[in-house]
Amino acid sequence: MPSVTTTSFYLLLVFAISIQYFLPSPKTNMASVSSPWADTPCELITTPQHATGKTDIFTVGATHMAHIHNAILRGYNSIYLQAPHIKDADKAAFIGYSLTWFRFVKSHHDDEETELFPAVEQVLNDKSIWGETHKEHEAFLEGLSGYSTYLSTLASPTALNGTHLQSLMSSFQPAFSHHFHSEISTIASFSSHPSAPVPNTPEADAAAAVFKNWGKKTVMKAGTLDVVPFFLMNLDATFEGGKWADWPPMPRLVRWGLVNGAGSVNWAWWKFASCDARGGAEGLVGVAARGWGEGVDVGLCTFLGGLLAYFVLIWM
Questions:
Q1: Which residues contact residue 72 at a Cβ distance below 8 angstroms, ignoring those fewer than 6 apart?
Q2: Which domain holds residue 20?
Q3: Which of 116, 127, 146, 187 is least enclosed, having the fewest CB within 10 Å?
């Protein structure tokens, strides 16, 4: 006969998982979120597939990159808009959230420069394709570094000055936003490059694999316990009519584990995210209070179930 501990563990696990199936999906429950939301001041990127209907490898690759960039842009916007309104009791968690955004951006930049860009240069046999992109990177890195330095060297969390943080962000926002949009157009334009692989050939398959393999590992390598939950909780499942609600493609239980298992380590940070655990758009807590039943509860219920199961497992 199973022990009480074992039985409790499985009951809690079933409860936590069942929440994912019985609560409505954001794909079919796209309630509007009161302004302001995390779609400003940095404008979000229209995906190339949505804009053109094309499905070539570079349009698809640019679309997947746009999803990553939009998560980063929502992260920027959520920090910028909430910064002046954070209470002292929440400042430590907000700083953790804000520094996670920095690590996400820095890792994304470094991984592009060292892994993705050389691989695409090889596919197209052209080392000049990223010339402007390299310049765009350089244009915002100094300001990004100043942002990180400020947050990392505060005498105490309560010393955070949200208005000053906004001013630091504003200093690199134009170059930052321009680059994150421009890079998507650059990648999509490679479909007309003279050396672009012919569709339905081994070369095209190999080129598609470059984007697919890079995309699968780039966020994970940035940080499973911080950047991954940050990324997933800044993906809006209602974006462009909900057509990307299941992106990135992964089993529901895997996504659940990444948000609620890995995410539980820094659980206090995620209330500042722009979306809930299932991708539903959230009101920003630093700007307007969230109420029971307004979207945050999907993430909250899922998190509580996951946390209970997690601690029971540790105790066993």
A1: 101, 104, 105, 108, 180, 234
A2: 4-315
A3: 127
